[in-house]
Structures are given as C-alpha cells and as structure tokens.
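user: can you give me the structure for this one chain? tokens are fine.
assistant: on it. calling the predictor now.
[tool input]
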Amino acid sequence: MTQSTHNSLAGHAVSRRRRGLAAVAALLLAGGLAAPAAAVADGSPAAAQHHRTTDRRGSLLSVTPLAALDRAGVQRWLTAQDMDTSRVRHGVRAYRLTYRTVDPYGRPTTATGLLTLPTGGPHRLDIVSDTHGTMVHRDYAPSVTTDFGRVPSYLNAAAGRAVAAPDYLGLGKGPGRHPYMDTASSVTASLDMLRAARHAAAGLGRPLTGDVYATGFSQGGQVAMALGKALEDDSPGRERPFRLRALAPVSGPYDLSGQEIPALFDGRVNDTSGLFYTAYFLVAQNRLHPLYRDPAEAFRAPYADRVEALFDGEHEEEDIIAALPPTAKELLTPAFWARMQHPTGALEKTLEANDTACAWKPSAPVRLYAASGDTDVPIGNARSCADRLAARGAVAPVLDQGDTDHFGGYKASAPQVTRWFDEISRHDRNDRGERS
C-alpha cells in the first residue's frame, strides 16, 4: 500500500475499533432492529430453510442483522466516506451470515460474510459478489467493520442488487488464521458465501435470480477474476446455480511472477507496501507450504523471532509496520532476498498457483480497473491480465484511473463499476422484455 493508502485504511481501522460497538448499536437503533441475534427464529420460513440446509458447503448456520439505513441514510453514510452517491436509489439492510465451507485442505470449517439487501427494487434480486482487499486484523472484515469496508456493499445494494461480501477464511468471525493470497480457498469461501446468501435472501423474502456481477479490490480483484473462472466452469457434473453476468475487478495482483514481484525490486512498489505485503505473504503461505523451515532462513534478526506472531489476525497494520524494518530488503536475509528475485522450488510453485486467475476465456463482459499511479499493485498487473485473456480470445479493456494511488484508484473505480453493472442489468432486462 502507498503511505497515503496505509494512512487512510489504518485510520479507518483504528477509529473503527474505538467506536465499533457504539456504531453498531447506533445503526441497529436507527434501523429499529433488535440486538444482533440469529434471524432464523423457530417456526419462521427462514428457520425451515436453515434446518434444510445445514449439512453441506454453503449451508447457512446463522443470520445476524447488523444495520438498516433508509435512502437518505445511505447517502449520508457514503458522503461521509467521500464516495459518489449518484447511484443510490434505495435504503439497505445488512446481515452477517455464518456458513459452512472448507479450509485450504478441504476440511470442514465455517466462515462469515456480509449480505446487504436493498429495501426496494425488484422482488427477485441479482447479486453482486464483492471480494475485499488485503486486511490483517480480523475485525477489518466486511461483516464486522462499520467503516469503509462496507462501501461496495452499500453502493451496489442501494442501486438495487443484493451484495454478498465474504470475509474469507480466518477473518471476521471465522476460526483460525487467514491464508493470505491463497486464491483457491478465497474462491471457495466466496462461492460458498454466494450459496449461503441464496438461502438467507430467500428466508428474508428477497429471493435471488442467480445472476452474479463480480467485483473486488486489490487481493479481492484477483479473487474476483478467479471466482469468475469458477462460475463459468462447465466441467461435466459441476453444479451451476449461478450465472456470471459481468466481471469488474479493481487493481488486482493478477501476475505475481511477471509483475508484482519484479515491481518490488524495480521501485514500482513503494517500500512500506512492499514490506507489508512480502511479510504477510511469506508468513501466511509458509503455513500452507514449506517455503522455509525456520523463520531465520527467511527473516533477519531480530525480526525472525517476531514476524510470524504479528500476523495472527489480532494486530493492527500500523503496529506490524512499526515492529518491522523500513523495507523488505532489510527484513529478508540476503539469501531469501535473492530467492525472491529468482524463485525456485516451493516458492516458485506458490507464485505460479496464484497466477492463473486470468488464464481462461470469459463469456461474460469484463472490465479491468486500475491506476497508473498505483504503487501497491502496479497497473502492469491489469495489462498482463488483459493480454492473457486476449490470448484466449476475450476482450477486457483496462480502464486507467490515472495518476492516483491504490486507494484513490479504488475510490474512483467503485462508482464506475456500479454504474456499469446498472447498464448491463438494464440491457439484460430489455432483452427479456422486462421493465426497468
């Protein structure tokens, strides 16, 4: 992240932790909701649905009401986040879903996510999958935060679609630690969140059409691309309850080997972000794959004794950065720094496994949003993705948001994504002869 991005996101996180409980209470009171509790009371239609669907992936374990805002309330909230409100047509209601999924090894576990529904619009709703960017503290996740992490959910729900925003594994109220940049398990959690959202929305009286509009930012941009690939997988016998209608990821690290890692060495990634991403990636991936046997193989003293404990889901970003040296080069041992420049073995395989998100041919329209001024995830990632898609016969324009940083690129892109989803939805309804 650029320093300005880090300051913005960390500031949101710190203020959120100080006033989080009060903010949630205020939202619940404003919306006339009871204190958070499972919304599947015995004897209700939601309860019946709940009991029928608690034994498989994506099955719904609980629905917790979090917030209710009328249209004016959504406009005020988005204005406070310095976001465009021109697409706001409805109020929103937000819920935390707890659902069944699997961990990176295929073992049963649970995860949480944010489901946001519009208070108006059609009875049957299309759904937006929004996958979030890099976060280190579990309470930054969409179903827990009350700050900027909910912007895409409120933007798209207020425009008239349901929004499923997975927290991913190990974030929000899910158990364990987050397997950062393990794209496969993030896609699994996102697919299962869509399934859980389908059950929850039906129980809440707003059934889903099955049409999915996928977006995501930063880490979530890569997840969104890979999720689109999974949604369009037509392998024999594969369940396909959802139809991908549009794909609009923002500033995703789609090409770790060819773009993101080289940018760490040639100056296109700023020092603070390079340090943070490198440390987080290596610690999280080493929990899944043997990248190093002992932290001292990868990290210099005295950081080798502390770096793994910093990424436990309970530390703030600024505390982690303060406990580490200024740059990734000063964090890593000379041997591992050289290995990062020329990956081999397990490290090379780990990078390659995360570089396949754009290796397919979408049938749905795709737009790639990025910023030429981004020094967290350089725009070369989006251009590389567009080239890979083009090599398979797909057209995916890169929409450059200009000389702005990572966070600024997202703020510019998010309303454009919502507007584009509106256009595609309107076109689809016209093709079906439905009224807008």
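assistant: here you go. DSSP finds 16 helices and nine strands in the chain. Residues 191 and 227 are 7 Å apart (CA to CA).
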